[in-house]
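Table S2 (text version). Query chain:
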Amino acid sequence: MDYRDDLAAVREFVRRQATLAGLPATRVGDLVLAASEVAARTLAHADSGGRVRVWSQHGAVFCEFRDTGTIGDLQASRERPPDDVIGGLGLRVVRQVCDAVDIHDWPGGTTIRLCMSLPGPAPPS
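Corresponding C-alpha cell output:
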C-alpha cells in the first residue's frame, strides 16, 4: 500500500493484515502503534511518501516500510535521547514494542522492517 498523508489508512491496513495473519489483538495494537510511528517518520522526512506491506512467514508477521528519507544514525534509536531533547523517541518506542526491527539505508532511501512473532502451539505438558 502506498501512502502520502493518511496515517489512519496505514493503521487500518496494518491492523487488518496483522489480524488476518493471526496476531493476537494486544500484539496487533503494538504493531499498529509501531507502524504509525514509522509512517509518521516517513511523512516528516521523505519527499514522496512511502510504501508499506505486511505478510506472515515462518511463524511471524512482518511489516515493512520503504521511503526516500534517510536516517543519519541507524543506532540512535537504541539509546534514550537526553532529557532536554524534544522528540526522537519514535523509533525507540518501535524497538520496544516489536520483537525485532531492522533498519537499512540504501542509496534511494530507507527500509524499516518490523517483526512480531505469532503465537505457537502450547508446549507439551
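Notes on Table S2: The first strand starts at residue 2 and ends at 3. Residues 2-117 form a domain with the Heat Shock Protein 90 fold (CATH 3.30.565.10).
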